[in-house]
Amino acid sequence: MSAQIIDGKAFAAEVRAKVAGHVDRLKEEQGITPGLAVVLVGEDPASEVYVRSKGRMTVEVGMASFEHRLTADTSEEELLTLVEKLNADPKVHGILVQLPLPPHLDSNLVINSIDPAKDVDGFHISNVGLLGTGQKSMVPCTPLGCLMMLREQLGSLSGLDAVVIGRSNIVGKPMANLLLGESCTVTIAHSRTKDLAEVVRRADIVVAAVGRPEMVPGDWIKEGATVIDVGINRIPSGEKTRLVGDVAFESAAARAGAITPVPGGVGPMTIACLLANTVTACCRANG
Ligand code: GUN
């Protein structure tokens, strides 16, 4: 079998076009422009790239983008004061504090100081709790993007065996909760899992989110399974470097029914879902 390649870039463009339509209607019918504030502390190069693309795409869909760049030595008090100001600003409907924060700042404290209604990352403890109990919440962008691709590919996910490899708060745990919400039988695998190969071989759905280049070999994949590869790993390739996922793409594609490529799979969906979450937050704030 040769897998269908799930085109995350094209799907993300469709999501952004829908968001742009929604933004137009909010402007025309209610005179409201949804606004997203992104806070970057320090100069982490990868974070710089993400924040720049978030700002660009926010503007492209017609929303207001507010970027706050703070130096790496910013105190916790200064950062908390900025978050308070954004919480109170009616022009700001979504707030994202880019992670990781410099080590002297307590990420949990900062994230939990964001108004949960503006927490477009879905990282605030109250949104985590709402998602974990199956209630309406802000859903973290990467797992939301993965779920949208799975639904588009498979329709109903009910009763399917799903394995999520990785137990991070940003991807693994919320992904598992979302799949449980779709009535999948969910296994969360991680670095201490005893027989990962066996767990993956049973799975109809594999979501790999560990950040280890090509750690899932193709021969672990069940024939016809759907593979969502969240990993974005830079590895040496001759004189240059190239991006690979957590799954060995070529060999997995020979067995899977469908698979996301890296790059061009999950990555573009994350920002599209961030924009969608901002519109959702704006609509909820304005009845
Ligand atoms: N750093 C890497 N991914 C993310 C994300 O989804 N949200 C935030 N805030 N920081 C990140």
TrEMBL record:
Keywords: Amino-acid biosynthesis, Histidine biosynthesis, Hydrolase, Methionine biosynthesis, Multifunctional enzyme, NADP, One-carbon metabolism, Oxidoreductase, Purine biosynthesis. Residues 6-121 form the Tetrahydrofolate dehydrogenase/cyclohydrolase catalytic domain. Residues 140-284 form the Tetrahydrofolate dehydrogenase/cyclohydrolase NAD(P)-binding domain. It comes from the Bacteria. Gene3D superfamilies: Leucine Dehydrogenase, chain A, domain 1, NAD(P)-binding Rossmann-like Domain. NADP(+) binds at residues 166-168, 232. One of its GO terms (cellular component) is cytosol. Pathway: One-carbon metabolism; tetrahydrofolate interconversion. It catalyses: (6R)-5,10-methenyltetrahydrofolate + H2O = (6R)-10-formyltetrahydrofolate + H(+); (6R)-5,10-methylene-5,6,7,8-tetrahydrofolate + NADP(+) = (6R)-5,10-methenyltetrahydrofolate + NADPH. The keyword Oxidoreductase applies. One of its GO terms (molecular function) is methenyltetrahydrofolate cyclohydrolase activity. GO terms for biological process: L-histidine biosynthetic process; methionine biosynthetic process; purine nucleotide biosynthetic process; tetrahydrofolate interconversion. Its EC number is 1.5.1.5, 3.5.4.9. Belongs to the tetrahydrofolate dehydrogenase/cyclohydrolase family. Catalyzes the oxidation of 5,10-methylenetetrahydrofolate to 5,10-methenyltetrahydrofolate and then the hydrolysis of 5,10-methenyltetrahydrofolate to 10-formyltetrahydrofolate. Homodimer. This is Bifunctional protein FolD. The gene is folD.
